[in-house]
Amino acid sequence: MKHLLKMSDLTREELFHILDVADELKADRKAGRAHPLLAGKSLALIFAKPSTRTRASFQVGMYQLGGLAHYLNAVTEMQLGYGEAIEDTARTLGRYYDGIMIRTYKQSDAEALAQWSGVPVINGLTDYAHPCQVLADLMTIREKKGRLEGQKLCFVGDGNNMANSLIVGGLMAGMQVSAVCPEGCEPSRTVLEYAKAYGDKFTLSTDPKAGAQGADVVYTDAWISTGSEEEQLLRRRHFRGYQVNEELLALAKPDCMVLHCLPARKGEEIAVETFERHADEIFEETENRLHAQKAVLAILMGGR
Ligand code: CP
Ligand code: NVA
Fold first, then answer.
1. Which ligand has the nearest atom to the CA of 162?
2. Which listed site, 128, 142, 267, 291, has its alpha carbon 20 to 30 Å from 134?
């Protein structure tokens, strides 16, 4: 594993290795054992979109690993925002940093950074993928359910970055995955192609009730993602009927978990009551961003 750009770059072994290291680092942290695996190393954090969790967890994570993280605003502060080429940004940062995390729009920009920088690149969210989030999600499910194999994961909502990465990650981990997306908001064609190899372990439908039937985990994401704010009204109308709420969860297993990558727009993709009932799981998932990303960093930059 040289970079983490999308879930399909990983092998199943690499995926489980990340989860195992993440569990280990979490246990260390809880027990107060320091693990300065990246002492003297530095990580650039490039952000072309807003963030709370990704930014904070990478910064704190690098600190806990004994390294340094720099936040770089790609819109207003970096030359990248004023026309410098991504390949020149890559070749520059690769000379200073031991690794780069990027949150941006185009997946091709993250791929170009990996191609040109000469250091490990981590995708901290693009329009296509959010692998760091899915690693934390899988870690959380395994923690609560004891295993991933055979669990049914149902994603309800917009078939964009989260859905794309969850489908690939869930199937790779041995889960059964049902994606429920309204017409015109289906996951990427590449992801649907990937899922074909898993036969009936994957289903795509427009019917939340069918998708949530017997689910062990129900997952949702905002209807209005970064970059789609102008379509707010249209999207709210289009996604009506796709809310994760108590009525929908009545069809899932009685001990069904509810996860959300956050930020949530409560009352839209998830009912307030449902969010609060599952808040412990959702915020454990948020915490696990820290541990899962530290595992990725330790593997990519520290040879774990
Ligand atoms: N889930 C997630 O990536 O959150 P942020 O946008 O706050 O980083
Ligand atoms: N789909 C959301 C995910 C945020 C973590 C977005 O792209 O904004």
1. 2
2. 267
Atom of ligand 2 nearest to the CA of 54: 5
pLDDT digits (tens, 9 = 90+) for 119-133: 999 999 999 999 999
On whether the CB atoms of residues 220 and 257 are closer than 8 A, the answer is no
Nearest Cα to Cα of residue 79 among 42, 117, 48, 118: 48
Do β-strands 217-220 and 257-260 pair in parallel, antiparallel, or remain unpaired?
Answer: parallel
List, in order, residues 6 or more apart from 110 with CB less than 8 Å away: 5, 102, 104, 121, 123, 126
Residue 198: which of 181, 176, 213 has the closest Cα? 176
From the CA of 53, give the closest atom in ligand 2: 5
Q: Which two tokens stand for residue 185?
A: 């908001």
pLDDT at 227: 87
Q: Which residues pair with 176 in a beta bridge?
A: 152
In contact, 256 and 249? CB cutoff 8 Å: yes
Catalytic residues: 103, 130, 133, 221, 261, 289
C-beta 292 within 6 A of ligand 1: no
Handedness of CA 243, 244, 247, 253 (dihedral sign): positive
Rounded to the nearest 10 degrees, the angle between the axes of helix 161-172 and helix 189-196 is: 10
> Which residues of the chain have a pLDDT value below 70?
none
CA–CA gap between residue 235 and residue 206 (Å, rounded): 15
Nearest residue (CA) to ligand 2, atom 2: 225
